[in-house]
Write a structure and sequence with these properties.
This protein is an alpha+beta fold. The chain is built from three helices and two strands, in the order αβααβ.
């Protein structure tokens, strides 16, 4: 997943920072005694099979590297 995000950012740089969440298959989650929260299911929906990745906006833009303004390319 790290390699995939790195390549995505190199080939098509995002305008804003984001986080990518990997969600295991429902079968795997259940086999480990877990479940997705109602909030997660409401926000991202149900899925029957396979794994899923979700890109979400980075929650903080306080630092220079993560801020909404793009860094000066000459720097």
């Amino acid at each position: 997943m790290i390699t995939e995000v790195a390549l995505d950012c190199l080939l098509d740089p995002p305008a804003q920072s984001f986080s990518r969440v990997f969600v295991a298959s429902p079968r795997r989650i259940e086999s480990l005694g877990g479940q997705l929260t109602e909030g997660w299911r409401s926000a991202f929906g149900e899925f029957e099979e396979g794994v899923r990745t979700v890109d979400r906006p980075w929650p903080s833009a306080d630092c220079a590297a993560c801020g909404l303004e793009l860094l000066d390319e000459d720097a």
